[in-house]
Amino acid sequence: MSALKKLEIISYTDCKYSSEQGRFSMLVNPVEYSENSGITYNNPQSVGEKSPTFKGLEGKKFSMKFYLDNTGVIIGSNSIDDSIKKLEKVCEKYVGKTHETPFLKVVWGTLNFKGRLSSKSVKYTLFAADGEPLRAEVDLQISQFVDVETEEKEKNTSSPDLSHLFTVKAGDTLPQLCKEVYGSIGYVTDVARVNGLSGFRHLAPGTKLFFPPLSDKN
């Protein structure tokens, strides 16, 4: 039987994630977490435009809910106040050298999310007779961080691992564009579905097509 792994939030002072400054390790793993992303569109500007056109990708958001408990049920637990202070030190402590909040990595099993804290809320749900908090519910939201080097790669239309936006020219076909982006026509159906196309044999010049990362298609 494999050992139970605990989720960790690791804090770094630099965007290359090379200089660690602290860790927050869960005594009780989260009850849930989620990743959300979105796509923004330009609304039709003229009568001739029938539908919104692609504008851009929104950065991913990671949300997590977990509990802190100091009722004596969990061995090794600290006071709720101490746990919150440690969490704040890891996630929010100002990095003087860079004048920035820290860069975070959330690691658990196959999860490896990099970003920066965008919001934190704490709800205290149980108290001792003297008012000391004994249990709390914590919600964190972390915004994905992409370094400048990766952003530059996104401008390289020859890389199949990153997202692309193409404006269709006369004579373009979806199989041909898939061949250019992915090196294979095997993703035609997927790209058509992502862009809401009912067919792909005839593409209207001027149409903007989104080609998702190859890693999302495997």
Compact summary:
The chain is α+β, with helices and mostly antiparallel strands and 218 residues long. The protein is 17% helix and 38% strand. Strands 2-1-5-6-7-4-3 form a seven-stranded antiparallel β-sheet, covered by helices on one side. The chain has a two-stranded antiparallel ribbon with strand order 8-9.
Structure description:
The protein has 218 residues and is of the alpha+beta class. It is built from 4 helices and 9 strands. Helices cover 17% and strands 38% of the residues. The protein has a 7-stranded antiparallel beta sheet, with helices on one face. It has a two-stranded antiparallel ribbon with strand order 8-9. It is elongated, with a radius of gyration of 23 Å.
Give the class-level CATH name of the largest domain. Mainly Beta
Number of domains: 2
User: DSSP strand (E) fraction?
Assistant: 35-45%
Class derived from helix and strand content: alpha+beta
Order of helices and strands: EEEEHEEEHEHHE
**Major sheet characteristics:** 7 strands, antiparallel
CATH topology of the largest domain: Elongation Factor Tu (Ef-tu), domain 3
**Number of helical stretches of at least 4 residues:** 4
What value does the average pLDDT take? 83
| Strand line-up across the major sheet | 2-1-5-6-7-4-3
The number of strands is 9
User: What is the gyration radius calculated from CA atoms?
Assistant: 23 Å
Question: Shape from CA axes?
Answer: elongated
Topology (SSEs and partners):
Elements: E1 8-12, E2 20-25, E3 32-42, E4 53-69, H1 80-92, E5 103-108, E6 111-127, E7 133-144, H2 148-154, E8 164-167, H3 174-182, H4 188-194, E9 208-211
Antiparallel strand pairs: 1-2, 1-5, 3-4, 4-7, 5-6, 6-7, 8-9
